[in-house]
Amino acid sequence: MRGRLPADPRVKLLFVHQNFPGQFLHIARHLADAGTHEILFISEPNQNTLPGVRKAIYRPSRPASRSTHGNIRDLDAAMVRADAVAKTAGQFKGLGFTPDIIIGHHGWGELLSLPDLWPGVPLLGYFEFFYRTSGLDVGFDPEFPTPVTQFPQVRAKNAVNLLALALDQAGQTPTRFQRDTYPAWARPQIRLIPEGANLDLCKPNPAARRKICRIADISVSSRETLITYVARGLEPYRGFHVLMRAIPAILARHKNLRIAIVGADEPSYGPTPPGGSWRRVLAAELGAGIDPDRVHFLGRVDYDTFRALLQRSDLHLYLTYPFVASWSLREALAMGCAVLGSDTAPVREFITHGHNGLLVRFPDPAALADAVHAALEDRNRLEALRANARAGAEAALDMAQHIEAFSAEIARLTGQPL
Length: 418
Known about the structure:
By secondary structure, the chain is of the alpha/beta class. The chain has two domains: 11-196 and 399-414, Glycogen Phosphorylase B (Rossmann fold), CATH 3.40.50.2000; 206-396, Rossmann fold. The protein is 35% helix and 17% strand. The chain has 14 helices and 15 strands. Strands 3-2-1-4-5-6-7 form a seven-stranded parallel β-sheet, with helices on both faces. Strands 12-11-10-13-14-15 form a six-stranded parallel β-sheet, with helices on both faces. A two-stranded antiparallel sheet has the order 8-9. Strand 14 (339-342), helix 11 (345-348) and strand 15 form a beta-alpha-beta unit. The protein is globular, with a radius of gyration of 23 Å.
């Protein structure tokens, strides 16, 4: 880097996320579109770009050391990341860049050294989840108990969380569930900035169920029932094992039904499958109960295919441990899906049973199969759920509200209107 950066615009923003743009796509794009701000985004290398956003790359100097105690390898990796981000940020400081605010995700430790580089500059950090040995994901599923000997490792996963809280800077998170995973003394530091959905893209298409729809590699007629399930990874954390074990009973009760399953075989959370993937393990367990002519594993799909599936869906299943809710739940509600969700705290924050969706005891394959059957037997009720899902999304999940709340928090911390 040579020379000086351009003359200072009205507000200078520094974003940090190891997978640009991460959770900050919508606010960063909105601010860039305004054309009156200077936006620098520090990230590990990827191919993503945003017009009006300057992307700077950092590269950790090494992976977490295998000689480090296993319980604190995440902390070791976080310290390496913090050093790498500070080195990249320091180059821009040397060129005269001083942000009015630093915005980032605390999960990987990237923000930890930036207050030392720019003392007095406000920092707004995303607090995603505080790990606990009981009451949340750990120990939730009796099929996958966590030995007491692993409890120290669970607690140690909060090392970066605690260091981030010790910075005594502003924090934000999108749901009450996520905020309430943190200790009571930390919650006043963490503001709620709810995330939303693009209501113009994520909208109902009632005509999709009145004609033959060809989506990905499947064709669904208007006489067929389509159940959809979406997860980043097909894994127990998102109830994939429960779904698979419920499928034989669902297929037996409904002869004219297809199930479309979206998600990668590689798990994102939780235990590693013994056979390479949970799909392979459960397919071997269930055998002919998973009819390949009626159960479609689509892998990862593009966003247009995802939307087309949900717009055609007769019943959408969203299952999760007490863990961070997926963006797909918000988008399913915005698209007016009839959602059958797990009766777990993160889902209850979005769905009121019988009003804008349905909840089912979890993890329980028989209960899921029974709930699917009951839902499909009352088509009038499904229509009411769809209408209420969309209305609720318009009231509380509009992306414009997320951008407005995020912008207001930036203005509060910087003292400068956006």
